[in-house]
Sequence to fold (373 residues):
Amino acid sequence: MDFDLNEQQQMLKTMAGDFLAHEYSKARVKELEKDSLGYDPGTQAKMVELGWTGLIVPEKYGGSGAGLLDLVILVEEMGKNITPGPFFSTVALCALPLMKFGTERQKGTFLPAIAGGQSLWSLAITEESGRYDIRDINCRASLEGDGYLINGTKWFVQFAHAADYLIVLCRTGKEGELTTFIVNRKSPGVKVERIPTTAGDGQCKVRFNNVRVTARDVLGRIGKGSDLFNYSMQTGAILKCAEISGACQAVLDMTLAYAKERVQFDQPIGSFMAIQHKLVDMLTEVEGLQYMVYYAAWLLSSGRKALTSISMAKAKAAEVYQQICIDGIKIHGAIGFTMDHDIGCYFRRIKSAEFMLGGRDLYLSMVADGIGL
Fold:
């Protein structure tokens, strides 16, 4: 295993960091937290021009054909800049399952539009409980003629209000098996409502009232929606961990810079042992999380068994993110507790990051299963 970035990956990392720092300053991010759309379409269009929306899409469908590790690097930089918008929901949560489970017609129709920035997507799994547990799925698709009618409500569907298409997990058949459908967000019977959140992260509630879909809209096989669910949980979770890892690095960098410039008793507070030890603890946690993320992504991208490593990373990520932000705020002192300070942008996103694609308890249980407990 060699986690050193190659020349192209280093260029991607540097370019992404510079671009996002310019386009999404913390002041701009704070403005967009209160914006009805929640992101800047102009910046999204620039991401398309840079080729980011097509980064992992195969070349035959208009993309660059890069690998999962390249996407991890990009998403990590997005985490550093707490980048708002539908990139994650479109590329990380929907393009990957489309590539794996889509028919040739579906891939030929939808992937070029994603790569070219003509369509935005969102993954609709969770329901009222908010848990990523297939036992909680009650949204139902019932046979009706040569198609299906979808009825039910999905919660916490990120940027559904901006999406053109939704990937929706439903109950089908007498045995209650799961099937996944591609649904046009503008179909009759689809109603989207924004959910106000502290993080301002574009969460939505989506109601389906007799929404008609056809057999051609099935993604994967009928009754095998759990396959797509499990795949999306793994790929989505490791990419969410990469985003969290980047955010943690940004909080550490911000706190370290403050400790060097803030003077008390005629010397920088970073010269005091209590602050030094706290910063070293933060550094250890951040680097440890980054290693876990890269290792799990490497396992997944190379076709090895990765579920336990992904689960360990996701369980650890939430813990590290919270502790890093709390320690960072403490070192900043009173100013760190204000809404105006940049560190607050990261702190407001802790719970959103923790519970998206499943909370810590879920992944701890998965680790326990993986080691035979």
In short: The CA atoms of residues 124 and 168 lie 5 Å apart. The chain has a mean pLDDT of 93. Strands lie at 121-124, 140-144, 147-154, 165-172, 177-184, 190-194, 204-214, 218-219, 263-264, 267-268.
